[in-house]
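Journal club prep — side note

Before the paper discussion, L.F. wants everyone to see what a predicted structure for a comparable chain looks like in token form. Sequence:
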Amino acid sequence: MSARWAVYFAPPPDSPLWRRAAAWLGRDPSGAPVAQVAPPAGLDAERFAAATASPRRYGFHGTLKPPFALAAGAEAEELQRALATLAGEVEAFPLPPLQVGTIGGFLALLPTAPCPPLEALAARCVAELDAFRAAPGEAELARRRGTGLTAEEEALLRRWGYPYVMQRFRFHMTLSERLPDAERGVLAAAAEAHFAEALAAPLPCDALSLFHQPAAGDPFVLAARFPLRGAQSS
């Protein structure tokens, strides 16, 4: 049960934001070859690669349903059909503009305003696909609790297998590891310049993206995109 799946928001692989993110992280989860951009002044290439290691492995995304192993008896094909059905029931909608910010000590692209349709979509993904999720093991639960959870987050962990869903959901597209303040400032300035042009364009939420991690420790790859209702084909 080492393979995992996740439901993400991700822009189309041919979009400017996807391409800029792939270059920032040094990996394109759709499989296209890409080299990481030159590190900002004050960091060498090795340190820049280390500072972006986790988001590079997970692939550029905003989480809607966190990574999960399939429940006993569940099949990936069934999951894909359910995801296609869900996507077809949700009207595509615009996301608020994104900006470089900080969440939990790491850099991310964050929305500049609340987005109720996005919050509702994430809640549907968590709840309506829950039958496909295997319950987390004790080691995973202990790791989550080790970060220090509130009573509300503990209840969410027990019910949904993850503490930051439903009312604790906060959309973000991760760009770095947790960083010391000074280093985070350097990377934030570089990220603002790197993403400026891509973030100036309107960004629709037009599909649900299914990502797959074949085995523990492997990079997540883009398995399929399921268009939302009314989405324009690219």
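L.F.'s comment for the group: The mean pLDDT is 95. Keep this in mind when we get to the figures.
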